[in-house]
Amino acid sequence: MFYRFAKSLLSVLLRARFRIRVLNAEREPKSGAVIVAANHQSAWDPIFVGLALERQLRFMAKVELFRWPILKQAITWLGAFPVNRGKGDSRAIRSALEILKSGQALAMFPEGTRVKPGEAAAAQNGIALLASRTGAPVLPVRVVDNGKQIEIRLGDPITFASVIETPKPSKDDLSAFSNLVMEKIRNL
Average model confidence (pLDDT) for the chain? Predict the structure, then answer.
């Protein structure tokens, strides 16, 4: 309930400041587990992605955001959970697996951090690990901010099994899928 209220309020406030346009909204899976994978250039990206999609998203958020009590409470109410980036955070992976196994939508930024416009960073393997273990499709999303207009572009969902055909994926398989997801995001 808090998520819907916050989404409505932010929509009104941000649409007064930005022209927000969603392209290919019909590509969003309406039900079932899905991993929303987006580029991350601004602190506003989680909000823009959340506004663009119909479904409630559960965000994996950097643990540092949970150190400020008021922010921690707000993002927890919005369904975010902490991830210790770059550390192979098993607790965050378990939380993400539970979210996906219960048929919810999980949002994450495969690069693991914000990346300046025009630059690229290697994708972390968490997205591939989750996609391979759950079978959840990955929805590539690109946020494009030209200052006054925000475009949120949705790509075609892809599954791990449609790209990597092995029951026990190697680290290279995970890396290949994660990088493919980032390539699809960049090409939107």
Answer: 91
E-only strand ranges, 24-164: 34-38, 57-62, 81-83, 105-108, 138-145, 149-154
**Domain locations in the chain?**
2-186
Q: Is it the case that residue 20 has pLDDT exceeding 80? A: yes
Q: Over 90: is that where the pLDDT of 167 sits? A: no
Quick one: 2-186 is in which CATH superfamily? Glycerol-3-phosphate (1)-acyltransferase (3.40.1130.10)
pTM for the structure as a whole: 0.92
- Strands of the sheet containing 138-145, edge to edge, are 19-23, 149-154, 138-145, 34-38, 105-108, 57-62, 81-83
